[in-house]
Amino acid sequence: MKKIILLFTCLSLFAQSCSHEGHRHDEHDHVTDSYLDFSNRDDQFEGGIRMIPIQTPKGEFRVWTKRVGNNPTMKVLLLHGGPGMTHEVYSCFDGYFPSEGIEYIYYDQLGSYYSDQPEDQSLWTIDRFVDEVEQVRKALGLNKDNFFLYGQSWGGMLAMEYAFKHQDNLKGLVISNMMSSLDEYEKYAKEVLGPQMPEEVFQEILKIEETEDFDNPRYEELLMEHHYQHHVLRMPLEDWPEAVLRTLKHVNPNVYVYMQGHSEFGITANATLKGWDRRADLKNIQVPTLVIGAGHDTMDPKHMEWMSKEVQNGRYLFCPDGSHISQYDDQKVFFEGLIRFVKDVDQGKF
Fold this sequence. Notes:
8 strands, 350 residues, single chain, eight-stranded mixed beta sheet, alpha/beta
């Protein structure tokens, strides 16, 4: 009799466990269903894609955005690098953010492949890009209760500039793989990264830059073999993700060269971004801020760690095996730290 009672007790506990487990699955399914629900959204027709009209001193243009997921308190707008690259470099976010319930928005800045591409170079200024981001924010209904701004490389520079002017609209800020001074970036490239190359290779690169012989195919060949595969994306070129190659294929050189110059090894002398420096202004950023650096980056990880201490409410994420786009070559560390930051800020734990 005792054995029968014990058996029924075990079966009862098992049934309750299954019931609770089923309840947890129901809750998870409900969250998943809500996250993926496009009904009653104004972007349902194209599955999250919207061409947002942007007012500029040269008239109205349209920029491409795509919203993934629904979350009323965690919405991350992704600013790509370049300038003139594309959102495609963030394709791997699809593998991590949806399972965490984080909404995110792909966005091609004006001049980039999926957006309008006017040829007027007077549009390629930091202030106008900041104003563009603000117009995109308003169009997407982002505000201080949900708006996380993520920027990498040039996108990190743009994110800083946006925060200096509009941080009251932000819930959180992420500056990824971007220093706060381009002079310091060039110094790091020339004094630290360059000497890691074979001496003859480094000298040949410097000579090409000195003579401004940037159309010489040897220049790109040297950078690809001795720099890009070690500090931009730390993989053999044949293993580079298709999305990254697509981004490079779609770059707008008219924007890139005008603002950044001819290479990732430094800022070309006549590029409009040359001399940009915001080190002294970091102390004015009050919003919760994550700064991401990587051990093999084109940017100095020590400088980025310093940045995280200069802002008023900062955290540093170091990707030891990563390079400039560490979302690929140190992916687990990158996404674990990024997701933790977004959720900690959202839950008031930051």
